[in-house]
Amino acid sequence: MDLKKKIRIGDLLVQNRIISHEQLLTALAEQKKTGRKIGRTLIDLNFIKEIELLNFLSRQLQIPFLNISQYPRKAEVVKQLPESLARRFRVMLLEDNDNDVLLAMADPTDLLGLDELSRILQKSIRVAVVKESDLLTAIDQSYRHTDEISNLAEQLQEEISANDVDVGHLLASNVVTDAPVVKLLQSLFEDAVKANASDIHIEPDESVLRIRQRVDGVLIEQILNEISIAPAVAVRLKLMAGLNISEKRLPQDGRFNVRVKGRTLDVRLSTLPIQHGESIVMRLLDHSQGLLSLDTLGIPAGILNTFRRHIKSPHGLILVTGPTGSGKTTTLYAALNEINDPHTKIITAEDPIEYSLPRINQTQVNAKVGLTFAGILRSALRQDPDIILVGEMRDTETADIAIRASITGHLVFSTLHTNGALETATRLMDMGVEGYILASSLRVIMAQRLVRRICEHCAEPSTPEPGQQIWLDRMNFPKIGFKQGSGCPHCNNTGYKGRIGVYELLELNALTLDALRRNDSAAFTRDALETPGFKRFSHCALEYAIQGLTSLSEVLRIAGELD
Questions:
Q1: Burial letters for 126-136: b for 16+ Cβ neighbours within 10 Å, e otherwise?
Q2: What span, in angstroms and rounded, lies between the C-alpha atoms of 126 and 71?
Q3: What is the pLDDT of residues 98-148, one digit of tens each?
Q4: Would 401 disulfide with which of 53, 293, 370, 377, CB 3.0-4.6 Å?
């Protein structure tokens, strides 16, 4: 069928008896209200599935139907078409040949769009139809802001060089909204959102400025040669966080909110004086995603059922442990959200408060005015609480008060930075907590880590390497069924997309409690390993690897840290 002829999708669908005439009339009436295209309207009304419509268009127009998430894309080809046009016409340039180009389109019947694109590209156009959601994801991935960040950095350097003025005064003035530094930061946040980054690192070196984003736990680096812009960027971020812009010799912490692409980000900012300026790290918390529930965290059913039973206990100490960034706070918030009801008084001491929870009395630690974890705990116990959350046990005083609260009728949640569940009790005893008191309070320890998920778009079978085979033999696990990611545009050629939690849960029993009372760390570890149902991280991670969720390399990384 000639693409230059106007195509009435609705009539064609009726003629082919895919939808009824009455459904078409209903869709046309809805289209007048929303202004959306007829194809999208039919899909939204559940009169036809999107994949069914796209296959129909592919047959009628005699054009291919592509899975764009798996199609190899070259950045230099894609970016020949400006992002504004790609988003406006829901289109992506996939191939640029001598005589023609290949375009992926969500709506290949958009004749006005095709005419405009033909005029701009000055070549004959071949069209392939693709899913709109996949196309928008591909556009987000392909039109990253790295080039724009470099260009804005150059502009900012030129402005600073051309104007011999005080940078602090320039950025604090009202005209700063149009300054390149603001545009640079805007592009930086937008790029981080597109990459799904959890942290942004800005690090001045001797001759370059390094911008690094942590994506799925791994840092990805972009190098800017414009080192002279570092002070301007630092000052502007300090202003946004309400920090002292003249103080460059001491670390500072602050936070601010930014709205990026319809999402609200809570940014926690930390500065640190280093050799060539100030290192700035920003942790990005996406509040628009809402609070997760325990069911959505991916905790294995056996561990989840035991954990749920303990969070509904009337008293005792429940610990969630793991390294920084392992999701401990998310797990605790999900637990509190589950047991939060009008009959329960819950008080928290946090640093910082990451999410606001209704009906829960949340207190922010402020060491500058003497409001420490221990100080908040003392006051909280006079507020008649049923449940207390201590953000982190950082010192002996906090641990002692929290543990004593748990043996006087309160349920206490807290976190600790340890490698695993077995090391937690030992860490507390090393902090000075008496074993017999710990044995009277501690109910359960859940430790967690995060491993990277294999990208589902480029996953392929994998054979264990010799070293991995030796380790699998030692673990008595089979050596089949493993996968790895080969790398594709969908995962930025890393082979991984997203992360999944691995867990181990230790439920205290008579033997482990007796070892605690005797302050016998070795016996505690030995008895804990023999506790029925207890499995180390490596077993949980290996089960994920056998299911094809993660790779053997990620499993061995977890196991190596434990060894």
A1: ebbbbbbebbe
A2: 16
A3: 888 899 988 888 888 888 888 888 888 889 998 888 888 888 777 766 555
A4: 377
Cis peptide before 82 (omega within 30 of 0): no
Report strand pairing: 263-274 vs 277-286: antiparallel
Angle (deg, nearest 10), helices 510-517 and 521-529 = 170
156 vs 132: CA distance, rounded Å: 37
Q: What is the largest CA-CA distance in the chain?
A: 86
Q: What are phi and psi of 237, to 5 degrees?
A: -65, -35
Phi–psi pair at 498, nearest 5 degrees? 85, 175
Give the angle subtended at the CA of 193 by the CAs of 142 and 67, to the nearest 5°. 35
Provide the token pair at 408: 């006087």
Residue given tokens 């009906």 in the structure block: 359
In angstroms, the Cα distances linking 462 to 182, 454, 479, 480, 484 are: 46, 12, 10, 8, 6
Q: How many residues does the chain have?
A: 563
Amino acid (1-letter code) at residue 251: P
Q: What pLDDT is attached to residue 415?
A: 92
**Cα 403 off chain centre by:** 33
* % residues pLDDT > 90 (the chain): 26
